[in-house]
């Protein structure tokens, strides 16, 4: 079942890189040991951490999410996700004696039922874990390109990029979610899969009431899902389920039962795999039984970096999340103190830091099994100092001066999902998972009842041409069989100066995941906001190309906006940026905040 962990090209890369690939390979596979269990110093003394007093922020007049609102508090455990039912699945498992890992896996499978646009078994994701005894780990269950994938598979006869990396059967990478969640549970959980999957199976079999958020999402997906299959549980006879209706998913319940009974093999072998491959054959899909059998999640050492006196643990490649977050925050750390939140200089410096980090992201990061990735350089403070030296105090630096290519505007990103879980012992799990686009490729697997991803679009389907998120990526992220497409997912755990979990955070939103997650971290650490204020604070985004500073409507005071424009920033307005779900340690327990711009549930006790 396990393919060789070494890329075909391993002999072509430099010896130093071979060494790092070997080290990474040592830690892969559910049964392996090694770099996944990187031990940090043990947690600090029990009790409340020395969290500095919070400071009330000032948001622009009329900003639609005013500061000063209370958050959900719980003394022992907390789970936050985009679905209240899925968060409740996590607390159900913890009440039954499970730890945060058991609960996170329960939540992940429940999301596949209750948040089908993004929670999934037909996609992939990443989890970062920090156990109360100091162990940390990261698991990569990103989709991979099928064996029959080719570099130019999304170009038409004229060399023009088609939309087949986004819609339809050809858009899917080989799903990793089931392999990843079950490996995570096996290594760090305490309960069997059959137990932690009970809430998900129950929700699929008995159904649950569709809320307005899900009803809206279903309505928006009508064209893309019914195009491939007229009748699904979300669209009985082609008609979208309305708010208040009950969503019952018997096929999905059977699939989940197969996984609960046989583990990952219940998905990658047997009738579920047969259904997936049959679905591929109905369209022009290329995922085969062999692809499914070869899928293996990879244990990795988390990116470990610090911002001021806090430690961040985040996701290494194949996600760009941890590296790009580290690089951005390292640049900002060069300033002894950041300017006041919301000032012209704040937006300028934070936006300029992201711009530089994204230039590296877009050009240098990719699946480390295929491409040498300069991790140490990109995350070093010395390099950050050099980059900070390129930031002018008075004007925006055009990306074309920093990296000479201009591109089209991105669409507003759609849809991934992040969840955060902590337990009473202080174990913490941050997971981000996705089908990529909302409702993935639009393809629902007949008989097995789940949506398939369109993750192939995260590759540079035509290097130099923007993808769905407007990201202009290079040759290093071109399609190769068996390769993981570069991600921006950034599940992150922040430890305080006593080495206790302070924040468990992550987001959905394509490249804005990185900027949104790191702004919540900055708001808490640097600006000492409460978690609720940190989440409600207006956000910005810069991804190098297109060369614009994106902001939320009403989130920047007009005079500040004028000043930023006069400095040369091309300001681009969106209604909302990023979908973050976070937990923060506070005196006596935890606060949980689901994304105030979206829907979700924080559940604890
Ligand atoms: O892995 C990635 O970076 C993208 N597939 C994430 C997509 C996403 O967040 C869409 N969501 N809102």
Describe this structure in words.
With 605 residues, the chain is an alpha+beta fold. It folds into two domains: 287 residues, no CATH class; 173 residues, Serum Albumin, Chain A, Domain 1. It is built from 20 helices and 22 strands. Strands 1, 3, 4, 5, 8, 11, 12 and 22 form an eight-stranded antiparallel beta sheet that branches. Helix 20 links the parallel strand 17 and strand 18. The longest helix is centred in the middle third of the chain and has 21 residues. The two termini are 41 Å apart. The N terminus is likely disordered. 6-diazenyl-5-OXO-L-norleucine (DON) binds next to loops.
Short overview:
This protein is of the alpha+beta class. The chain folds into two domains: 83-300 and 415-483, no CATH class; 303-411 and 494-518 and 539-577, Gamma-glutamyltranspeptidase, large (L) subunit, C-terminal domain (Serum Albumin, Chain A, Domain 1, Orthogonal Bundle), CATH 1.10.246.130.
